[in-house]
């Protein structure tokens, strides 16, 4: 399917790609063509940047699936649509680079599923989280039953879906839905700073973090530990590791920023 919605902005800032959801008049609701365009921008960022930031233009991050498009779909079209979201969000979660999402306003339905496919979530206090699928007579279809449930836990997600409960940013932080809670208008800047930090890592380490770490969680303990050893050896024998270890030993490496001492 060709995508020509113009609903995605794309910019490169040094090593960081900035991908903006830009359909504010519909609260960045995601149509079929829009999700494809997100996938194209994610693929481009994987070639041109070392980390990416995903944010929403306007007053909201994303109001989820474009409900206007989903009236009168056949069952087969519904499955194909959901599988398309899965394939595209998988290129965020298990793609070439780490992604940080900057959240404000609505992070609702498919918007929460999209945020859950990124590796770090930064939210402003205006952000609110909801899964109103039950109220709309549908179900999550963008990977939420796996990714969002893993972040917050089954009981909380079941509660959100059964009751349509709207969760504040403060509560969402306690529920592990986000890692950084920041002031008004600060999420994008914080996300870019975190993306720059991640981009400065060895790329093979980042690859291991986004590909091996989540898979290890799905493995039996002994399998996970074995895969960990393989990744540890693969990264440590990479020439970039030798150079970085030498920089540390020769006191040329950037020092850790220790809270309460360096800030
Ligand atoms: C939309 C959508 C949408 C807004 N699809 N058009 N998602 C939802 O159930 C959330 C639905 N949206 C809302 O609850 C509200 O729009 C918000 C709380 C996010 C924002 O409220 P507000 O007052 O700022 O905006 P609004 O007046 O409700 O909406 C502005 C316009 O955006 C309006 O269109 P207009 O032509 O009347 O101007 C809305 O119809 C439109 N709009 N959200 C289509 N989602 C892969 S499966 C995932 C399943 C789901 O995501 S289910 C959850 C869907």
Automatic annotation (TrEMBL):
Domain of life, per lineage: Bacteria
Lyase listed as a keyword: yes
SUPFAM superfamilies: ClpP/crotonase (SSF52096)
Keywords: Lyase
Alphabetized GO MF terms: iron ion binding; lyase activity; oxidoreductase activity, acting on paired donors, with incorporation or reduction of molecular oxygen
PANTHER family named among the record's database cross-references: ENOYL-COA HYDRATASE, MITOCHONDRIAL (PTHR11941:SF54), ENOYL-COA HYDRATASE-RELATED (PTHR11941)
Family, as annotated: Belongs to the enoyl-CoA hydratase/isomerase family.
Gene3D superfamilies: 2-enoyl-CoA Hydratase, Chain A, domain 1 (3.90.226.10), Lyase 2-enoyl-coa Hydratase, Chain A, domain 2 (1.10.12.10)
Keyword Lyase: yes
Record's protein name: Crotonase/enoyl-CoA hydratase family protein
Any one biological process term the GO annotation gives: fatty acid beta-oxidation
Organism: Flavimaribacter sediminis
InterPro entries reported in the protein's UniProt record: ClpP/crotonase-like_dom_sf, Cyt_P450_CS, Enoyl-CoA_hydra/iso, Enoyl-CoA_hydra_C
């Amino acid at each position: 399917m060709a995508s020509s919605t113009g609903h995605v902005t794309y910019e490169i800032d040094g090593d960081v790609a900035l991908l903006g959801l830009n359909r504010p008049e519909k609260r960045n609701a995601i149509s079929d063509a829009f999700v494809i365009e997100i996938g194209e921008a994610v693929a481009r960022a994987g070639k041109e940047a070392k980390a990416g930031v995903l944010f929403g233009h306007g007053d909201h991050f994303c109001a989820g699936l474009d409900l206007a498009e989903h009236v009168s779909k056949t069952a087969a079209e519904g499955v194909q649509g959901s599988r398309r979201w899965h394939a595209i969000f998988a290129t965020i979660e298990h793609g070439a680079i780490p992604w940080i999402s900057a959240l404000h306003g609505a992070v609702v339905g498919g918007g929460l599923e999209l945020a859950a496919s990124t590796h770090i979530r930064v939210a402003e206090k205006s952000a609110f989280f909801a899964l109103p699928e039950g109220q709309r007579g549908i179900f999550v279809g963008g990977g939420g039953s796996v990714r969002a449930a893993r972040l917050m836990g089954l009981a909380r997600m079941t509660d959100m879906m059964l009751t349509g409960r709207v969760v504040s940013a403060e509560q969402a932080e306690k529920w592990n839905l986000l890692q950084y809670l920041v002031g008004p208008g600060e999420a994008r800047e914080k996300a870019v700073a975190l993306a720059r930090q991640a981009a400065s890592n060895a790329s093979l380490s980042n690859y291991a973090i986004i590909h091996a770490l989540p898979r290890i969680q799905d493995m039996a303990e002994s399998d996970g530990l074995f895969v960990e050893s393989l990744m540890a050896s693969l990264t440590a024998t990479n020439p970039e590791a030798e150079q970085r270890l030498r920089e540390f030993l020769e006191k040329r490496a950037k020092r850790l920023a220790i809270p309460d001492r360096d800030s």
